[in-house]
Amino acid sequence: MSSNPDEPKSRARTDFLRTNESEVQRSWDESKVFEADPGSEPPGPGEKFFGNFTYPYMNGLLHLGHAFTLSKLEFGAAYHRLRGCNVLLPFAFHCTGMPIKASADKLAREIQQYGNPPLFHGAGGAAVADALQTDAVAPDKFRGKKSKSAAKAGTNKYQWEIMKSFDLQDEEIAKFQDPYHWLTHFPPLAKEVLKKFGLGCDWRRSFITTDMNPYYDSFVKWQTRKLKKLGKVVKDMRYTIYSPLDGQPCADHDRATGEGVQPQEYMLVKMEVIAPFPPRLKALEGRKVYLAAATLRPETMYGQTNCWVLPDGIYGAFEINDTDVFILTARAALNLAYQHLSRVPENPTRLRELSGNDLIGLPLKSPLSLNQTIYALPMLTVLTDKGTGIVTSVPSDSPDDFIALQNLVTKPALRAKYGVIDEWVLPYEIIPVIYVPEFGDKSAEKVCHDLKIKSQNDKEQLAEAKRMTYLKGFTDGTMIVGEFSGRKVHEVKPLIKNKLLEEGTALLYSEPEKKVMSRSGDECVVALTDQWYITYGEAEWKQKAVRCLDGMNTFSAETRNGFEHTLGWLNQRACSRSFGLGSRIPWDEQFLVESLSDSTLYMAYYTVAHFLQNGNMYGKEMSSIRPEEMTDEVWDFVFCDVPAPKADIATAQLNRMKQEFEYWYPFDIRISGKDLTQNHLAFCIYNHATLLPEHRWPRGFRCNGHLMLNSEKMSKSTGNFLTLEEAIEKYSSDATRFALADAGDGMDDANFVTETANSAVMRLTKEISWMEEVTASESKLRAEPPTTYADRVFANEMNIAIKETEKSYNGFMFREALKSGFYDLQLARDEYILSCGAAGMNRDLLWQFMDVQTRLVTPICPHYAEYVWRKILKKQGFAIKGGWPVADTPDPTLRTANKYLQDSIVQMRKLLQKQESGSKKPKKGAVSAPPSEAKKISIGLIYVNEHYSGWKEQCLRVLQSKFNSQTHSFAPDQEITEALMNCPIGKEMNLKQVQKLCMPFVRFKKDEAREVGPQALDLKLPFSEMDVLRENLELIKRQLGLEHVEVLPAFDDAARSKAGECVSLLEKNPPSPGDPVFIFLSKYRYRKASHVVHGWTAEATTRASTVPGKKTHGSLWRLEGWGHYLMRKLSNIFKNLLILDWRGAAARDEQIMNCLLALVRGRLTHMTRSQIQPPERKVSSVCLPSHLSSSLHLLLKMVAMFRDLLGEGETSLINPFALPLANSSLMVMLTNIFHAMAASDASKRDSIVSRGFVMRSWIGSAASST
């Protein structure tokens, strides 16, 4: 057994899947099932699907990250193929650029230096040893092939060792000194792995890039010439990210880090050092020496009070030309040297190394500054890896400058520490430069005071202050000094910039926005290069690109926003390089077409590649068309709707290529990682928009996030890495595809979970076993039409699964498709098996399930589907072309009803388990004794209330009137509260009482309605709860292990009586629609409850007949009894008492007793609220016989209990049944009391009993007659 938890416990199931996959793939190949040819007529909507994937770079093996992005195309294409579309999915291999050439050259240098095979030693040997030890990874990591990341690292590992990680032998590795050998080695390996993956690819159209493929080389040269002819390619001096080591521009694909980083332009302000020079600069006398400060805000230079240097920073005095010397960092000097600002181009000459301390106190003359002389001062937050390490100081508008200067002014010890004398700091006042309406003319000071910033170390607050002042200063600021005073900052900024440049007191300087490392391992600079550029961003072209994007489906708002942002800033882009592999620029062959410029239109090449290359990806097997015959005129004819050219190619062949292109184009979707929105995909939009007619522009781009492995970033260096081939071998193709589908959708980073892949092996093989068992025992299944409740639910769930999975596939949301098409369907099947019970499962439904599930999962697990299709379902043809299952219209009400049923069973099971186990947990290790027959729970009573009533009904009606079903939103809370106060409940309570009683329910229902819609506000569910539960009594009994279950109406008195003393549960938590109440009883308690109810009824009926003026109201009194009736009346009384304005316990007790006695005399039968108030008439004392005093004592206890509850602000219904004393004995006792009161002798009413029980009450005429 494997010690790695990510390894399958046994290979048997995996081997079964792998064997089946090999058989299925052979069958597909033999039938050429994925080869796609156009129809004879142009396709109608939905008849064809052409999708493509950003081809991978071939300097290593395909890994799971490639597979994840590719799976989005593969699953989508497979779905459309299943639906009967004519599907084209081609695949190619990208080899253009410098990484392969750089790696090959690096390998050649190692062999030359260390031999073949090389014998590394010294520090390098240690590095190799460290690298070799990475094989001993933790057991929960994977042994990854370290190709791409190691190649990116460049200097961190020998190229020889990188090649060894590809399982290459020593004698093979030397061949990779030839960069073209990489092109013959890796693409065929990738193709074979993709076949194992089950990719539904038309391999006839596969190709590699570079001039190694003469047909593709011809295509790229046509595209480049056409762009130049249209004026989209120009040669000019431009700033570009540049690799000094490679000696050429470093495009995105050439970078190890910093993809997407652009040159950042600064103004380099020349602050001249005033003579005499200090000793450290004596050697520079006679030269013009400047501290060169990089700034983005030249308009603020009027307010300079000083400049800043980092005390511990390392600077240098660099020779710019024969006369000028700049003091700045070596990094900035290197950038300047590549921008023609060094005496020796590309090689800055440092005349003197200096520290920041050497510069403190230098007197300076700075352009535009209103101060004639300023000084270099220390600042602890100056960055030497950004700008030049020299920073201008404008404390009026820069929060950083203001705080740093204030620290020096207010802290003499700080000045002393760095040797700063007072004359350099104290005389300098803040000079207002810009007026900002929100902050005044000293923005930095105002914002720092507002944010209470005291120190240079308050970095977060300073960053916020900077954001506030810089943005407002530029957009709303007005200049208040200089020749541009009174004009807006955003107007004069370019004017001031030009003024400084014209005067020669500043110059332009660029550096990378962020750090960029080339794949060769050096830090890139910004160089001013004379090269070929594509004029992205040109106004008219940009408009067409935006129009193209507007017509595309991007599948997410985030993707669209990314494209809109990129099209907003994208401008001229270098399209040439001098090092690497690729096609030569046809009119200037010293340059190559860079890798992001030869890959913007190749999707069109797929449509004709098989005509030209004869199925050979290298274009080496000549077809009837020779490469040189593919002239620009021929390419134009095929792709650009122009007349047929004079060509050596047969007219029929030309027409076939044109027909093929027009059938498939435009492509329907392009799948890519999200990182390519800012370059490759944006370039693709631009190129299509200018080279092809509008009706051939792309229809859709879908982007996804990166892939993590077990919630960690995939990394070869840590071992948390899997190649695609390793994953297939470890889990099988279908299980790998299953886990890729489950990894995630959208632009967020996804997560491939190895446990999901392992579990997929088990799930798929177990499902096959179950299907085989079902088909083997077909005769035992129920053969009649599916009519039972369980049948109807199961059939409905299959219909829902079909519809939901179809929606997910159409939206390219494959995790959701897997959920509805596999997981949910499995749950529905398992539930059906449990629900059928003795009736058995329906044969037709099970066969339908096997058919439906197989079709729904086919795009994700096609090999598994083929096995089921042919060997279990015995169908002809291929599952991948079997068609989409037909679904009846789903019944959402039936699904809701079944969820109600299943949720009710789950809730009943929890309550039953809790009741059986009791409140106390058994001691550890103790064995519970089985319950006695008397205590064993075997009866279940389900009380249902199908309609909201009372105050809840009023609340729902208000919410219904205030809900917007279009937006799923409600009116403001204040409006809802006002509506509640205007309905009947609001007229009986004050605002505070309404809020306390109603608002929790209102909030709950609002949240529910926002989630599910207006049906959440219905007064009843869309189905009969009673019918659903009663139809499934056998299921409930079987699931809960009960002998008898009844479904009862909650407010039927006869039904309530069956609960016996447990009826209090109905009062504490009354049922509501969708929320029944469950009561479980033993047989003993159930029989006792029935006996007590019937016995009490007979007794109470007899006594009730002795009460003058009362009539029994049919079955109600006969079933429930007079005592029960009195208790219900009491409940109504106390409910009404809740809304009274009590002014003290004594008054409350008096009123309760008045109500009780009035009830006895029949005076509260139809009383209104006003009649409940204490009457303004004489109050008499009533004397009861002394033998009733004990009973009356209990009654008074109950009164006191009501009083206490009312005193605590209780707002729920107060019902005697909810009280501890409310049992059948108390009911009898109270009835005796009430009868005694009614029958007491009037002559004794004015006397006082010796026991001292006195009640004050109102005695009316009716009482006198009694």
UniProtKB/TrEMBL annotation:
Domain (Aminoacyl-tRNA synthetase class Ia): residue spans on this chain: 24-107, 182-751
Any one Gene Ontology molecular-function term assigned to this protein's record: aminoacyl-tRNA deacylase activity
Enzymatic reactions: tRNA(Leu) + L-leucine + ATP = L-leucyl-tRNA(Leu) + AMP + diphosphate
Keyword Lipoprotein annotated: no
Leucine--tRNA ligase RagD-binding domain residues: 945-1021
Signal peptide residue numbers: none
Pfam families given in the database record: Anticodon_1 (PF08264), RBD_LARS1 (PF24810), tRNA-synt_1 (PF00133)
Keywords noted in UniProt: Aminoacyl-tRNA synthetase, ATP-binding, Ligase, Nucleotide-binding, Protein biosynthesis
Region (Disordered) location: 1-46
First-tier enzyme category under EC: ligase
Ranges where the Methionyl/Valyl/Leucyl/Isoleucyl-tRNA synthetase anticodon-binding domain occurs: 791-924
Protein EC: 6.1.1.4
Assigned protein family: Belongs to the class-I aminoacyl-tRNA synthetase family.
Protein name (Swiss-Prot/TrEMBL): leucine--tRNA ligase
Species of origin: Paspalum notatum var. saurae
